[in-house]
């Protein structure tokens, strides 16, 4: 009789900040709480995340190459590959090599294509980075762009007016046609209601579109995107359906913001994950997803 190791492992390619619940400081506790072993491949080490007015930055591009070579020699295997902020086109190429070498047919590839927000590219990114990210998403099973990144990946200008459900369905289908089976668009404003925000998703398997709408609280917490995609990754690895994964991730972020909102607390540190990690073991309280026809 052959016994199989039931512990799943994810190779997580993100940066590490000394202060702030962002990147690996969100990815590791969330996925660990969901029973998944995180194997970090850090892209950089920072004193704080980059939204602070001052920070130190140690680029680990060369070390990423050495680490992946070591993993190859040790013949490691992973059940999923999950990438977030990548600091340069060279790092994107390292990730492509990682996936090319290690991915088995049933392994999951999740790419959060971090490029920009609020209609603008992040500082230090240019056209080459956009082109590399377009290549990387072709290897992904799941991508989680915000609405700005949707338009950057499609090389389309982002309109100022609110987007209809039909328009968003077309955008998600166009991105899925580039490779990923599942496309999840976050931070989508709700027409005529600034107090709500939506997440849209498309699953090519079954050709279905999903939407989750939740309250928008007037507070900015860095790292919520990292936390959202981490819950999505963990849920799919646990066998949840896409709409259930969307509900779990959306409700977790909403719980985290509400738990943090009432404290005398520096918002720059991100949501207080320690207050809500235990919720990941609880069943969904109520389903808020809807199927778009």
Describe the structure.
The structure is a single chain. This protein has 293 residues and is α/β, with parallel strands linked by helices. It has a single domain, classed as 3-Layer(aba) Sandwich (UDP-N-acetylmuramoyl-L-alanine:D-glutamate ligase), CATH 3.40.1190.20. Helices cover 35% and strands 24% of the residues. The protein has eight helices and 14 strands. It has helices spanning 24-33, 61-73, 89-102, 127-137, 147-154, 165-176, 224-237, 242-261, and strands spanning 8-13, 16-19, 36-40, 44-48, 57-59, 80-83, 108-111, 116-117, 120-121, 142-143, 182-190, 193-203, 208-215, 289-292. It has a nine-stranded mixed beta sheet. It has a three-stranded mixed beta sheet with strand order 2-4-5, with no helix packed on it. The protein has a two-stranded antiparallel sheet with strand order 8-9. A hairpin with a 2-residue loop joins strand 8 (116-117) and strand 9. Helix 2 runs parallel beside helix 3 (89-102), helix 5 (147-154) crosses helix 6 and helix 7 (224-237) runs antiparallel to helix 8. The longest helix has 20 residues, at 242-261. It is globular, with a radius of gyration of 18 Å. The mean pLDDT is 92.
Q: Given this structure, which CATH class is correct?
A: Alpha Beta
The CATH topology is UDP-N-acetylmuramoyl-L-alanine:D-glutamate ligase
Radius of gyration: 18 Å
Low-confidence stretches: none
Structural class: alpha/beta
Q: How many strand units? A: 14
Overall average residue pLDDT: 92
Number of helices: 8
Spell the H/E element sequence: EEHEEEHEHEEEHEHHEEEHHE
Sequence of strands across the biggest β-sheet: 3-1-6-7-10-11-12-13-14
- Strand proportion, as a percent range, falls in 15-25%
Tell me the span between the first and last alpha carbons: 48 Å
Query: Biggest sheet, open or closed, and with what strands and sense?
Result: 9 strands, mixed
Helicity level: 25-40%
In CATH, what is the homologous superfamily?
Ribokinase
- The CATH architecture assignment turns out to be 3-Layer(aba) Sandwich
The global form is globular
Number of domains: 1
């Amino acid at each position: 009789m052959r016994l199989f190791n039931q512990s799943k492992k994810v190779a997580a390619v993100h940066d590490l900040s000394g202060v702030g619940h962002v990147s690996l400081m969100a990815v590791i506790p969330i996925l660990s709480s969901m029973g998944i072993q995180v194997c970090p491949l850090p892209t950089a080490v920072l004193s704080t995340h980059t939204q602070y007015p001052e920070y130190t930055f140690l680029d680990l591009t060369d070390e990423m190459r050495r680490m992946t070579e070591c993993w190859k020699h040790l013949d490691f295997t992973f059940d999923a590959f999950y990438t977030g902020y990548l600091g340069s086109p060279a790092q994107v190429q390292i990730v492509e090599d990682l996936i090319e070498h290690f991915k088995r047919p049933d392994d999951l590839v999740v790419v959060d294509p971090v490029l920009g927000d609020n209609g603008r590219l992040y500082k230090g990114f240019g056209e080459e980075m956009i082109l590399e990210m377009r290549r990387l998403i072709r290897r992904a099973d799941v991508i989680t762009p915000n609405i700005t990144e949707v338009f950057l990946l499609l090389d389309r200008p982002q309109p100022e007016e609110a987007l209809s459900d039909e328009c968003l369905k077309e955008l998600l289908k166009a991105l899925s046609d580039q490779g990923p089976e599942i496309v999840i668009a976050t931070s989508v404003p709700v027409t005529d209601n600034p107090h709500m925000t939506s997440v849209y998703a498309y699953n090519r398997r079954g050709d279905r579109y999903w939407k989750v709408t939740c309250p928008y609280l007037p507070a900015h917490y860095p790292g919520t995107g990292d936390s959202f995609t981490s819950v999505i990754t963990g849920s799919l690895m646990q066998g949840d359906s896409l709409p259930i994964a969307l509900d779990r991730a959306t409700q977790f972020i909403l719980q985290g913001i509400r738990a943090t909102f009432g404290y005398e607390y520096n918002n720059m540190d991100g949501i207080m994950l320690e207050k809500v990690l235990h919720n990941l073991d609880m069943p969904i309280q109520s389903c808020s997803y809807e199927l778009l026809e």
